[in-house]
Amino acid sequence: MLSSFRVLDLTWVLGGPFAGQLLSQLGAEVIKVEPLEGDLSRQVSRHGSEFHGDSGFFLSVNRGKNSIALNLKTEKGKEILHDLVRKSDAIIYGFAPSVPKKLGLDEETLHKINPKIAIGQLIGLHDEPPYSEAPAFDLVIQALSGVMSITGEKNGAPVRVGYQIADLAGGLYLALACVGAMLKSLKTGVGETVQISLLDCQLALLTWQAQNFFVSGEVPFANGARHPVIAPSDIYQCLDGNFIAISPTGQDFWRMFCNAIDRSDLIDDERFKLPKSRVENVQALTKILSEKFSKQTSDFWEKTLFDQRIPSAKINNVEQAITQPLSKLRNMVEEVIHPTHADKINFLGNPFKYTKSKKLNYPPALGGETRNILSRVCGYSELKITELLENNIIYQGKYK
Question: What is the value of pTM for the model shown?
Answer without folding.
Answer: 0.95
